[in-house]
Specification:
233 residues, two-stranded antiparallel ribbon, 9 helices, 78% helix, membrane, Peptidase M50B-like protein, transmembrane, transmembrane helix, Peptidase_M50B-like
């Protein structure tokens, strides 16, 4: 009961902080970086190139990539939301196993790599450098319990935001499809309506969000991933 109460307090705290000025967008950019990393990695794995990644104070992001063909371009555009959802659940699974140090290390490595090779705009670079410095400072100067709590809160924040960002693109695809971000781009490239892509993004996010919620409720990540694998293989 005590762990469940603490989890509920964490979720409430993250939700409140995410809506505060300045600090809310700052934290939300962690999820944006995961989203843009999904685009960038997919482009690279498909034989394309990553020209730049930009992160903005509005929490929006942009990955400028070059592709070998139309299919690669479609896959790159599609990858952002599923990648962010998957990585958010992996972060939740890791903190549930007590691996906060590894989660922090992965975040630090991703931030450093993005700063060196991808991020090219001033806002994005300032955010990335400050986020990396904060992670290192927390690890070096915080008590271990406080550092672990910080990483747990970050994992929960990314887990929640992976769902809310998918909900936003779904809502936009219904109300103003031409402004629906990745869904609108996919609609232009595939002739499949933005509403369909928005629905797909939301459905996959709901599945991953539910999986993360079960982990936070105490279910073993290994058992859940095994069950999920068996449903699709």
């Amino acid at each position: 009961m005590e762990e469940q109460t603490m989890l509920a307090l964490f979720i409430i705290l993250v939700t409140i902080v995410s809506h505060l000025p300045w600090i809310g967008p700052y934290i939300s950019l962690f999820q944006t970086l995961l989203h843009e990393t999904g685009h960038a990695l997919t482009a690279w794995l498909g034989g394309g190139r990553v020209h730049s990644v930009s992160l903005f104070h509005t929490t929006a992001g942009e990955a400028v990539t070059m592709h070998r063909g139309r299919l690669e371009a479609v896959l790159t555009t599609f990858a952002g939301y599923p990648f962010a959802s998957l990585l958010s659940v992996l972060a939740v699974a890791a903190v549930q196993q007590g691996w906060e140090i590894y989660v922090g290390g992965v975040w630090a490595a991703l931030l450093l790599f993005a700063l060196l090779f991808w991020i090219r705009n001033l806002v994005g670079w300032f955010w990335g450098a400050s986020a990396l410095a904060l992670l290192v400072a927390c690890y070096m100067y915080m008590q271990q319990s406080w550092f672990e709590t910080s990483i747990q809160l970050l994992a929960i924040a990314v887990w929640i935001q992976a769902l809310t960002s998918a909900w936003v693109v779904f809502w936009l695809s219904i109300r103003v499809p031409e402004w629906a971000g990745d869904a609108a781009i996919l609609a232009a490239r595939t002739r499949v309506p933005a509403q369909v892509w928005g629905t797909i993004f939301l459905c996959q996010a709901l599945v991953w969000f539910a999986l993360g919620g079960l982990m936070l409720a105490g279910y073993e990540p290994e058992a859940l991933f095994t069950w999920l694998f068996e449903q699709f293989v």
